[in-house]
Design goal:
With 360 residues, the chain is of the alpha/beta class. Helices cover 38% and strands 11% of the residues. The chain contains 12 helices and 10 strands. Helix 7 crosses helix 10 and helix 10 packs across helix 11. The termini are far apart.
Length: 360
């Protein structure tokens, strides 16, 4: 009976990404039977494979990131590799079917197994099945190199982003419907209130406390004459605090997964959970980009909001609360310590600094 339950859990309830057993033997063959050698692309190391007789006049560049990280970190990674492919006149292909990401779900989404294609149009017209039968294939390494660009809002990436990041129409319709219902004819403050793991991330910006954020939101609402707040946060405590403080002024995606722990990808709490995690952060980012004002701590999401730039007159306020320690052990307690201590002993100030960013 116990073994039977284990089999049922593994098959239907196990929260891990969908297995790639159907293809993993094929990938093992790639690595086993092809010759490994250094391929000098700005320090990148890749596998060069000869897999078949198709497309002898083309070189395909498979971009893999497994298991990857947050949605916009993955986008940034893909764009860095597209830049490499473009430079060498390779044809870039994103493969998050064989090299699964944290967003790969148990089931196909709209017929797609490649989790990149859950959310985005393909970056080239070739199918994976054809690419893996082609004569020249390069599989990228799985590293985010220090030489890579780390900011989506950099001018260098504007053209790359606009040409390659095409959100699925289904997601854009979802965003448009929400905007029409809650944003129309209202002046909106978009707030990205990071929490959970961001409080303890080494070297990252220190997120504001709840009281600091309340002070900043109140100040900007008044200053910019805004009516509503569109809140994006992954932490349930932050949502409940803002609901209590701002009541009917608050707008948020009710469907979004929130927790007081860093466990979004450790649980499988709803049908198509992993797909929905990706869809929700994309939708929230697109909506933040439409707001009249935007309050945030520097992150990949804020960088994406600025790059998408749906509202050309958006006023942007970056919170400057200092940086967390670069020491991974000290970083686990640094934010909590600063929250506890009075400001004259190194604790957080009543209100953090604000940097106004000009919309270009």
């Amino acid at each position: 009976m116990i073994n039977l339950l284990k089999k049922f859990y593994t098959k239907f309830l196990d929260p891990k990404p969908r297995s790639i057993n159907k293809r993993e033997n094929e990938i093992e063959k790639f690595e086993k039977f092809c010759k490994k050698r250094d391929f000098s692309i700005s320090g990148d190391y890749s596998l060069i494979l000869s897999l078949g007789s198709l497309n002898k006049d083309k070189i395909f560049y498979i971009i893999r990131r497994s298991p990857g990280a947050g949605m916009f970190s993955n986008i940034l990674y893909v764009l860095n590799h597209i830049k490499i492919a473009n430079h060498y006149k390779f044809i870039p292909i994103v493969d998050m079917k064989n090299f699964v990401s944290i967003y790969n779900d148990h089931v196909n989404i709209s017929g797609y197994e490649n989790s990149w294609e859950y959310y985005f149009e393909k970056i080239s017209n070739y199918k994976l099945s054809e690419v893996y039968k082609s004569n020249k294939v390069i599989i990228s390494s799985n590293n985010f190199y220090s030489s890579f660009n780390y900011h989506l809002d950099d001018d260098e990436f504007k053209k790359l982003f606009d040409e390659n990041i095409k959100f699925k129409k289904k997601i854009k319709r979802y965003v448009d419907k929400f905007e029409k219902k809650y944003f129309d004819n209202k002046k909106i403050l978009g707030v990205h209130f990071r929490g959970t793991s961001y409080k303890t991330s080494a070297g990252h910006p220190l997120v504001p406390t709840k009281n600091q954020m309340f002070s900043l939101i109140s100040k900007i609402l008044k200053k910019d004459n805004l009516e509503k707040i569109f809140l994006v946060t992954e932490e349930e405590n932050h949502l409940q605090f803002c609901k209590k403080k701002f009541n009917k002024k608050l707008i948020y995606l009710k469907s979004s997964f929130r927790s007081n722990k860093n466990d979004a990808f450790k649980k499988y709490v709803r049908h198509k959970h992993r797909y929905k995690l990706g869809r929700e952060i994309i939708a929230e980012t697109l909506l933040l980009s439409k707001c009249d004002s935007f309050l945030f701590v520097d992150s990949n999401v804020s960088s994406a909001v600025i790059r998408i730039n749906s509202n050309k007159s958006q006023k942007r306020y970056k919170i400057d609360n200092g940086l967390n320690s670069k020491n991974k052990i000290l970083a686990l307690i640094f934010w909590h310590l600063k929250k506890f201590l009075p400001s004259f002993l190194g604790g957080f100030k009543k209100e953090p600094g604000l940097i106004f960013l000009k919309n270009q």
